[in-house]
Design a protein that fits this description.
8 helices; single chain
């Protein structure tokens, strides 16, 4: 990843792509917001996702993201919307696996939330690194490390938000929003998966950069 450089006004950003992805996300938001399993949980889950998506589209010309980064952000928001519709602990992903392949893992716990936390690190590290690279003058390795730190810190902050919501709202809604499913180490495991996904994304980006220079 190159060091930060002033944005070149002659470089055409993928303006049409953010708009198309924004409209697609709006369609997903409306589709998965239609008769969700728990309306209040759906609203809580989208209290951050929807404003962030709106801001990304409105400020798209000031956000130096590549087409790949825009797609990564959209994919993460899409899998988040699935969780918000069913609530994370009830996403029937094992049933989908069984219908598609005839096989599904035998798991007592619904691990969709674990998958999304892993995807958070995998999918959002590159966009974060690109934003840093446009604003911070630093060595590429330091930029990658900072991107990992930001992703993990934001994942930890979200766990605190979940805890706060569980304390403020009624217990049943708080349990649905947190999605711990009785695991007292749920928050730590979620943060670890976000870290793992971020590190894997960083290693993949580093390996791809070396391959392109070879």
């Amino acid at each position: 990843m190159p060091a930060a450089q002033p944005p070149d006004p002659r470089v055409r950003r993928p303006d049409g792509l953010p708009i198309a992805l924004g409209l697609s996300f709006l369609g997903l938001l409306l589709a998965f917001g239609w008769a969700p399993y728990d309306r209040w949980d759906w609203a809580l889950e989208n209290a951050i996702a929807a404003p962030v998506a709106l801001w990304l589209v409105v400020a798209r010309r000031r956000i130096p993201l590549s087409a790949t980064a825009w797609i990564l952000v959209f994919v993460f928001l899409a899998i988040h919307e699935i969780g918000s519709h069913y609530t994370y602990s009830r996403v029937p992903w094992m049933e989908w696996c069984r219908n598609l392949t005839g096989w599904a893992p035998d798991a007592a716990r619904n691990h969709y939330d674990r998958f999304v936390h892993l995807a958070y690190g995998l999918l959002l590290t590159q966009p974060t690194a690109e934003l840093l690279g446009a604003r911070v003058v630093a060595a590429p390795a330091l930029l990658r490390a900072l991107a990992v730190c930001i992703v993990v810190a934001s994942s930890s902050f979200y766990e605190l938000l979940e805890w706060g919501a569980a304390r403020v709202f009624d217990p049943e809604l708080g349990i649905a929003f947190v999605g711990a499913q009785g695991d007292v180490w749920d928050a730590q495991k979620d943060m670890t998966l976000a870290l793992l996904g971020s590190v894997l994304a960083t290693l993949a980006s580093w390996a791809l950069a070396r391959w392109r220079r070879a």
